[in-house]
Design brief:
The chain is α+β, with helices and mostly antiparallel strands and about 500 residues long. Helix 3 crosses helix 4 and helix 12 runs antiparallel to helix 13.
Length: about 500
């Protein structure tokens, strides 16, 4: 039997949201990059284990296999302990799942491990172990000063933090161990790992612009190629205010987009008996989500943009978490979900031919949260997760769907009555929604108030008085979504291109 060791970050979205500043969030993404995990931990396991060629190679995950089939428990425990220590030093605020499994193959290890977890077993003959490697410092000790950026862990040092304003002065902040690493990775070490003292004194934007996080760098290069732009002419936004400023009008709103694949288990189940490399499949799915991200970002990047209108926080597997300039968000989400489905359909056809069996094409759904650029990212993330959950559950994850929250219009909670239309419904009724957007704001407000009472007769009478009945009628008889939802959606939908 072979011993497999899988280490994976838990609750990544919550970990990314610990700090309010974009630089801290960038740093967290950098800390979880696959190459970073590999290089940081290899001294702890390279003498006894090697990279598992059948496992995932994606951010936040490290899959290993011990080279000796008869490896003893003492060696396994030592490797797990030393690797866990290094992971916590790298990202002190992150939580980690550690799985140790004995099996004849990695596919068998995953199958038996998953069965044991579903049965509620912490340990099984193959040895599944789940734990957070090291305890965190107790913050309830009165003399301990909390971190001034996340407010979650004890401060361990003071450091200069980049100003929130472009021309502002650096601030001295008390930072916890995790934020200290985030701010280092999020500014000075995201392009190369060996800045000289002189390079470290350069302006942050000069360093991040040509490189940055792997996801941002790949996105920038891909968009430049699609748009025919000279290499290096696109930059990444320095902070959320800069990202919002790319928009039209008040230019102070962003959209948090959280997309997740539908029924991925069906895909893996269809291929469980086929001679298909799980690592190759995971890599192909990763390419699909990254390719769709590049295509959708290029679709919403204008010729006048000097910065990308999209900042990816988490990309990989079947997940995408990103911040988007608010007036580009609907075009971005529709383009992303459409392109992703096209890519996975092609992928499924290829694996269907190789496996000689039916293989379903995965799709994805999305939750969107529109809010002011200063609205807490952690709250946006919670709302986006709730919206995504509703989009998936309303249709049992059988088809691409979306759900949204506009904090300005809806308040800080997802409305209980908010619908979650299919992506195809939005496409089929795009002109109807555009028609509602043509109604002046005062008229839309009156209609929204009347629609909340659920009296279609009163709504129709009001629409007649406003001279807008032809625009409202599609939402009174067999509507694609409730009129009140369509009116809220229209606030940012009206920014979509008409072509």
């Amino acid at each position: 039997m072979t011993v497999y060791l899988d280490l994976g970050a838990k609750r990544i979205q919550a970990y990314l949201a610990r700090t309010p500043r974009l630089r801290g969030r960038r740093g967290a993404s950098a800390l979880l990059e696959y190459e970073r995990l590999y290089e940081w931990t290899k001294d702890a396991w390279s003498r006894s284990a090697q990279v598992n060629v059948e496992g995932k190679q994606t951010d936040g995950v490290l899959s290993l296999r011990f080279t000796a089939p008869d490896v003893d428990d003492g060696t396994i425990d030592a490797v797990v302990t030393e690797t866990a220590k290094l992971l916590q030093r790298l990202a002190p605020g992150a939580e980690w799942d550690v799985h140790v499994r004995r099996a004849d193959s990695y596919r068998q290890a995953l199958h038996e491990g998953g069965a044991a977890q579903r049965a509620g077993h912490d340990l099984l003959p193959g040895g599944v172990v789940r734990y957070r490697p090291l305890p965190v410092a107790p913050n309830e000790v009165p003399v301990v000063r909390l971190c001034e950026t996340c407010g979650l862990d004890s401060a361990v040092r003071t450091a200069q933090v980049e100003p929130t304003e472009p021309d502002g002065e650096k601030e001295i902040k008390s930072l916890c161990a995790d934020c200290s690493r985030r701010f280092l990775e999020g500014g000075y070490r995201t392009d190369t790992r060996n800045w000289t003292a002189d390079e470290a004194r350069r302006h942050w934007q000069e360093k991040i612009a040509p490189g940055g996080l792997a996801a941002e760098r790949d996105l920038r290069i891909g968009v430049e190629q699609i748009k025919g732009r000279t290499a290096g002419t696109l930059r990444v936004a320095r902070d959320f205010a800069d990202l919002a400023a790319l928009g039209s009008g008040d230019a102070n709103h962003l959209c948090t987009v959280f997309a997740d694949g539908n029924r991925f288990g069906d895909l893996f189940s269809a291929l469980k008996d086929a001679e298909v490399s799980l690592r190759e499949l995971s890599a192909d799915l990763n390419k699909a989500v990254r390719g769709a991200l590049v295509a959708a970002t290029a679709d919403v990047t204008s010729e006048d943009d000097v910065c990308l209108p999209v900042i990816p926080h988490l990309v990989g597997g079947d997940d995408l978490l990103a911040s988007v300039t608010a007036d580009r968000a609907w075009d971005f989400v529709v383009a992303f979900l459409d392109d992703y489905h096209r890519r996975t359909a092609t992928l499924a056809a290829d694996y269907r031919q190789r496996a000689g069996a039916p293989v379903p094409a995965p799709t994805a759904s999305a939750g969107l949260v529109f809010a002011h650029s200063t609205y807490p990212f952690a709250d946006c993330l919670d709302l986006a997760e709730a919206a995504l959950r509703r989009a998936k559950t309303r249709h049992k994850a059988m088809t691409p769907a979306v759900c949204w929250v506009d904090v300005t219009e809806d308040g800080p909670e997802l409305p209980a009555s908010r619908s979650a239309p299919r992506l195809s419904t939005l496409a089929d009724h795009r002109s109807d929604i555009h028609g509602l957007c043509a109604i002046p704001p005062s008229g839309r407000a009156q209609l929204a108030k009347a629609a909340q009472d659920g009296d279609d007769t009163a709504v129709a009478a009001l629409a007649h008085r406003l001279g807008r009945i032809s625009l409202v009628r599609p939402f009174l008889t067999h509507p694609p979504m409730p009129l009140v939802d369509a009116l809220v959606l229209g606030r940012w939908w009206q920014c979509r291109r008409t072509g």
